[in-house]
């Protein structure tokens, strides 16, 4: 079998990743090339370039078609996730850019905006390609205020209890985790952390008004553990993640925001005894109002038609 030296000086381009994904799905380099609208020799050259960049043989070319190698199957799965994330990024950016002239005005809390809203809005746009969606990203408290003031048609929040004066519907479940880097002493603990131990160590946390912070504060209050001692308060999940990975200190974060970090070992979950950090993610809209048109379609996408 051929092999290539590892030379990751150039990142793979998205079209090469799309080609690999299509080869895996169609079982044919020719069919994948046709679907991308390129000549087969050009597609073959692009695939060879991708293999050299990654230092792996990804596809076995045979007379019966093109078959992914074992390494190719693994990279195929990763490539699909990368392309999904890019599609979500582009959908979210377009919604942010068009919010002034939006036909549907949406506000979402940080975690939902980063990980779920682009998927829902993308599904809505596939059904209504001409629809302009404006997305405003803020914390859960402000989302509720925007909905009450009539400045947005639909909101999504992650606060632990339903906002007052608004109609709500569950769209997803989430839980918060206490996380540290592998080098932190807590990563080597053999027994769960107590809530008393948790509140005596300064933590990297979200700002007050965020659903993540409110969920943590209420959970500690229910456990009778008092209040946390913030080491630093930050305004987004991305900034909290960066801080804890860089060794600033332990953090409390949404599982949605750090799933890949946990799977790949960049962060370690620390179990805390007697602390329930589960929460419900909700859609909110003005009380007594029946959602119609694009807002109703977006809600259906978010709830899976429930």
UniProtKB/TrEMBL annotation:
<dbReference type="GO" id="GO:0000976">
    <property type="term" value="F:transcription cis-regulatory region binding"/>
</dbReference>
<dbReference type="Pfam" id="PF00126">
    <property type="entry name" value="HTH_1"/>
</dbReference>
<feature type="domain" description="HTH lysR-type">
    <location>
        <begin position="12"/>
        <end position="69"/>
    </location>
</feature>
<dbReference type="InterPro" id="IPR005119">
    <property type="entry name" value="LysR_subst-bd"/>
</dbReference>
<comment type="similarity">
    <text>Belongs to the LysR transcriptional regulatory family.</text>
</comment>
<keyword id="KW-0238">DNA-binding</keyword>
<protein>
    <submittedName>
        <fullName>DNA-binding transcriptional regulator, LysR family</fullName>
    </submittedName>
</protein>
<dbReference type="InterPro" id="IPR036390">
    <property type="entry name" value="WH_DNA-bd_sf"/>
</dbReference>
<dbReference type="InterPro" id="IPR036388">
    <property type="entry name" value="WH-like_DNA-bd_sf"/>
</dbReference>
<keyword id="KW-0805">Transcription regulation</keyword>
<dbReference type="InterPro" id="IPR000847">
    <property type="entry name" value="LysR_HTH_N"/>
</dbReference>
<dbReference type="Pfam" id="PF03466">
    <property type="entry name" value="LysR_substrate"/>
</dbReference>
<dbReference type="GO" id="GO:0003700">
    <property type="term" value="F:DNA-binding transcription factor activity"/>
</dbReference>
<keyword id="KW-0804">Transcription</keyword>
């Amino acid at each position: 079998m051929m092999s290539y030296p590892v030379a990751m000086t150039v990142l793979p381009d998205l079209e090469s990743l799309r080609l690999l994904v299509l080869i895996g799905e169609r079982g044919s380099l020719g069919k994948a090339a046709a679907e991308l609208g390129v000549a087969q020799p050009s597609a073959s050259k692009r695939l060879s370039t991708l293999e050299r960049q990654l230092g792996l043989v990804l596809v076995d070319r045979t007379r019966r078609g093109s078959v992914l190698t074992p390494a190719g199957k693994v990279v195929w799965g990763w490539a699909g996730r990368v392309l999904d994330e890019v599609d979500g990024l582009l959908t979210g950016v377009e919604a942010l850019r068009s919010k002034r002239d939006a036909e549907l005005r949406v506000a979402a809390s940080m975690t939902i905006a980063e990980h779920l809203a682009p998927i829902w809005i993308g599904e809505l746009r596939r059904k209504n390609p001409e629809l302009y969606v404006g997305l405003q990203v803020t914390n859960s408290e402000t989302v509720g205020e925007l909905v009450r003031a009539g400045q947005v048609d639909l909101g999504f929040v992650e606060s632990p209890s339903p906002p007052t004066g608004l109609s709500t519907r569950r769209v997803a479940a989430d839980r918060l985790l206490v996380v540290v880097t592998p080098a932190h002493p807590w990563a080597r603990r053999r027994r769960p952390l107590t809530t008393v131990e948790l509140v005596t160590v300064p933590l990297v946390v979200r700002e007050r008004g965020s659903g993540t912070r409110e969920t943590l504060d209420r959970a500690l209050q229910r456990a009778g553990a008092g209040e946390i001692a913030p080491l630093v308060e930050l305004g987004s999940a991305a900034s909290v993640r960066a801080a804890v990975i860089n060794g600033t200190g332990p953090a409390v974060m949404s599982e949605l925001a750090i799933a890949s970090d946990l799977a790949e070992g960049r962060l370690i979950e620390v179990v805390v005894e007697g602390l329930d950090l589960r929460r419900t993610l909700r859609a909110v809209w003005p009380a007594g109002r029946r959602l119609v048109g694009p807002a109703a379609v977006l809600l259906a996408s978010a709830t899976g038609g429930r």
